[in-house]
Amino acid sequence: MTSPRTSNAPDGDTLVEIYRRAQLIRHCGEQFLKTIRAGRIQAPYYSPRGQEVLAAATMVTLAADDYVVTIYRGLHDQLAKGVPLKELWAEYAGKASGSCKGKGGPMHITHPASGVVVTTGVVGSGIPIANGLALASQVNGDGKIALTSFGDGATNIGAFHEALNLASVWKLPVIFLCQNNLYAEHTSFANGTGCENIAMRAASYGMPGVQVNGNDAVAMYRAAADAVARARAGEGPTLIEARTFRFEGHILGDDSHYIPKEEMAAAIAADPVPALRRQIVAAGYATDEALDAIEDRIVADVAEALAYAIAEPYPDVAELGRDVLDVEIVP
Amino acid sequence: MAYDILVPQLSFSMTEGTIVEWLAEDGAAVTEGAPLFSIEADKSTVEVPAPASGTLSITSELNEAYAVGTVIGSIA
């Protein structure tokens, strides 16, 4: 079951905004790598390098108060949805002014004000949570939709299948976004998944399954906008399989030795961020100078967030017993 | 002001690391981003780039395990 493409291509301003968000992800990621390698922040780091355009083109189709549930490899989703830099950096550094008071860390970035309701640390576990949020929207009739982001490996987890089935039965306003970067941690797609592609799995649950080049800003935007329109119209869920690639391993310290060198080189040569820049300039949507100015601003913002995160205090020891079941609430 | 070189955390469970090789000599000029030392942790060896540019001062021993966050040298 597939649905026809109906959404228009993004206009020039929207493409420039997608580029801005993609560059924010790129520069923020670069600074995280530098800072962690310099020992200034001690944290596990999952680089989204290569997947920036996918997240940026998807998140611009959502309203500010729509929900996003992502996973620990979700820095690009969080930034594209609008989690503020300073709170994000402070959380990575474990500081009291972080988005989770420094107690969640990089794997659990949560910022409800920007719609990022939860980042889960277990593969596939965010999918049923998105259903719950979508059900709440449906019951409340508030028009919000939920998008959940996960990798190709997550579609082999039971929760994926159970959640898609229920979302279809209940016609929930939810979008299942599989960011298929072709490697589930260190396992190639062909070695871990029994079907040809992820999109076809939607047929089992009676919902549209769409395969798209996630690194193509226009195609990604249209696929996401179609799914958003369906969800808002009460027509139910969509499964999107966005093909992409990651340049810097699953986690910092992973040297991608299991990825053929030619495959990696080809992916880096097709880097979606400079490709989008060339597309924007060629179409006359913005000049190189204007895009440089956008980038300069981002570099300054990231530097400011880094300095803030380093300078801020750690949480007080008393915080250890707060926000957790430290004492029995019901005697 | 000298920039301290710290033992970084380079994998999920890494708590200490062993410097197995400095890729620049004590007193040499180093450039930010160029490989500075090789560190072994969790059975793998990783090259770490210089966090700043300047003159390298090594204040730690080779082949000795140091906890993450330990100052192993500086760049001035």
TrEMBL record, chain A:
InterPro entries named among the record's database cross-references: DH_E1, PDH_E1_Alpha_Subunit, THDP-binding
Gene3D superfamilies linked: 3.40.50.970
Keywords from the UniProt entry: Oxidoreductase, Thiamine pyrophosphate
Names of required cofactors: thiamine diphosphate
Dehydrogenase E1 component domain boundaries: 22-317
Identification of the protein by name: Thiamine pyrophosphate-dependent dehydrogenase E1 component subunit alpha
Organism expressing this protein natively: Sphingomonas immobilis
Automatic annotation (TrEMBL), chain B:
Listed CDD domains: lipoyl_domain
UniProt entry keywords in alphabetical sequence: Lipoyl
Keyword field contains tRNA-binding: no
Domain Lipoyl-binding: 2-76
InterPro entries: 2-oxoA_DH_lipoyl-BS (IPR003016), Biotin_lipoyl (IPR000089), Single_hybrid_motif (IPR011053)
Cofactor list: (R)-lipoate
UniProt name for this protein: Lipoyl domain-containing protein
Lineage per the UniProt record: Bacteria, Pseudomonadati, Pseudomonadota, Alphaproteobacteria, Sphingomonadales
